[in-house]
Amino acid sequence: MEERGSPDGDPARSLEQGPEGPETPIQVVLRVRPMSAAELRRGEQSALHCSGTRTLQVSPPGGGPDVAFRFGAVLDGARTQEDVFRACGVRRLGELALRGYSCTVFTFGQTGSGKTYTLTGPPPQGEGVPVPPSLAGIMQRTFTWLLDRVQHLGAPVTLQASYLEIYNEQVRDLLSPGAPRPLPVRWDKTRGFYVEQLRVVEFGSLGALMELLQMGLSRRRSSAHTLNQASSRSHALLTLYISRQTQVPPVDPGEPPVGGKLCFVDLAGSEKVAATGSRGELMLEANSINRSLLALGHCISLLLDPQRKQSHIPFRDSKLTKLLADSLGGRGVTLMVACVSPSAQCLPETLSTLRYASRAQRVTTRPQAPKSPVAKQPQRLEMEILQLQEENRRLRSQLGQRDPKTSGLSGARVSWAQQNLYGMLQEFMLENERLRKEKSQLQSSRDLARDEQRLLAQQVHELERRLLSACYLHQPGPGPAPPCPCVMVPAPSCHPPVPPVPSTAGSLGLPTEGALPAPGRKGRGGGEGRRGELETLL
Questions:
Q1: pTM value surpassing 0.85
Q2: Mean pLDDT for the chain?
Q3: Integer CA distances (angstroms), 115 to 224, 228, 235, 236, in order
Q4: Which of 91, 295, 359, 409 could form a disulfide linkage to 317, CB 3.0–4.6 angstroms apart?
C-alpha cells in the first residue's frame, strides 16, 4: 500500500502549539462527507476508508493497489460540526490573531464535497431564519468564541470585518450597498496585495457580525447543476481585523495599532464541465473557477521547490493567488480543510484533491507578528536604562561624600541666592515694562511733531507763492517805477528764517502796513493804489 502525505509527527499538536520555529508548514485537515441520498439511491459505493485519526485509505473500484494519504487530522462522515471545529484547532488560530499574527482558514475540494457546509453550515431556509446551533459551521463557532474571548481581555479590542467574492476574475464587495461593481487589487510594499475601496465594517457584538455574514451569503453568486443544487460560483473571503490598544504609545504617531487578522476563504469547487452539464454562463463560470484554482496549484507546486521559491512565484496570475499570497508563502499561519466525496464515481476528482492537499501541507511560511513599539528599539531602551542606572549610582555616591553641616549651609546659601535672584528678576521686569511704555510715548510724540512740521512747511510754501505773485502784479507807469514793496524793506525781512510756530504775517517777517511806503509819498503811476492792491492780496 502506497502512503503519501505528511511525514511522521503530529501536525495537529504543532498546530495547537502555534508557530515556534522560523518556518511553519501549512496544516491540512481532511474531511470526508457522508454519502448523499442521491448517491445511495443510485447504489454507488464508497472508495474511501479512514484508518486511524490521520490516515485515509483509497481503494479503487477496479481492483488497483490501495493508496494511503496522511494529514494532520482525518474526519469521516460521522463527525459532527463541533468535532470538525475542535479538530481544526481554530481556537489556537484565533489566539494567534489576537497576538498580532495573520491567520487564514480556507476550504478546498470538488464541487458538492461540503466546503461551504463546513465553513458556514447549511444554507438558510429563509430570510431571517438562523442556522441551527448544532449545524453551525467553523465561522459561526469561531465568531462566538472570539467575541467571548475579547470580553475577558484586559485591553480594549477593536473588531472590523470585510467580505468579498471573486467572480469571473472580478473582485466584488459583498457588504457594500447597491449593485456590485468590480474593485481593483493593488500592491503595496508594506501591505502586500490588497483590495482598494473595500468596505470595512466595525462591529461590537455577535449579532452584528452574524448579520454581516448573512448579508454576504445572500449576495454571493450560486447556481444549481447536476452535482450540486447550491453550487458556489465564486471564491469568497471574509476577514476579521483585530486591533488591540497597548499601554505603550507607538514610536511613530502615524503607525497603526498592533493587531492581527483572521481570514476565512471558501474556494469554489473544481468541476468537470462534462460531469456537471454546465452550459452558457455556468460553463464560463466553471472555466474561470478552474483557471484560478490551476494558478493556485501552480503556485503551491513552485513553493515546494526550494530553488524556485527564492526566485519568483507567479502570484499575479489571478486575483485569487494575489489575495492568498501572504497565506501561502508569506508571514501568516494557514490552515487548509480539504473536503472530498466518498463516492467511487467521484474518485478522479477526489484523488486530485488529495494530491493537491498533500502538496499544500509541505509548503512552509514564516509567521511574523507586527512588532510592538518597545520591541522595535530594544537596544536603544537598554542603553538608556544603563545610562540612567549609572547616573543614579554616581549621584548617590556624591551625596554620600558630602558633609551634613556643609550641606546644610550650602542649602541655606542656595535658598538665599534664589530669593535674591527672584527679587532682582521682578525688578528688571518692572523696569523693562516702564521703559517700554516710555518708548511708546516718545514714539507717539515724535510722530505728532513730524506731522505738525509737515503742515507748517506746506503753509510756508503757500505764503511764499502768494508773495511772489504779488510782486509780479506790479506794472511800471510812464514815469520812474516805484520800488517794489519787497525791495523797500531789507532783504532778510523779505525772506526771513521760518520760526517754529508762525501765526501772523508780521511774525513771519513779511512786510506789514507800517513797512509799506508812507501815504504822503506818491510815486509815478499811482504807487498808493498799487499799495492798496498788494494789501488786498496779502
A1: no
A2: 77
A3: 16, 12, 11, 11
A4: 295
